[in-house]
Write a structure and sequence with these properties.
single chain; 65 residues; 0% strand
């Protein structure tokens, strides 16, 4: 699921750049998001946007822990 992976990575790198996450925390956060993401068959732009939003929401929750 490239959409979810990309969204999680963007959130993780952004937090790293702000000093809120260690360098090694980037991959840990992305991995945590990918483990929680349900498998989705992305066939439309709506699917892309919903998957992106869900991954970002999960990333924010995981980073807050």
């Amino acid at each position: 699921m490239p959409v979810a992976y990309n969204a999680a990575n963007e959130v993780a790198v952004s937090r790293f750049m702000r000093g809120e996450l260690s360098f090694l925390g980037i991959s840990a956060l992305v991995e945590a998001v990918m483990a929680r993401m349900p498998r989705v068959n992305v066939v439309s732009l709506d699917d892309v946007l919903q998957t992106d939003a869900q991954a970002r929401r999960i990333a924010a929750e995981a980073a807050a822990r």
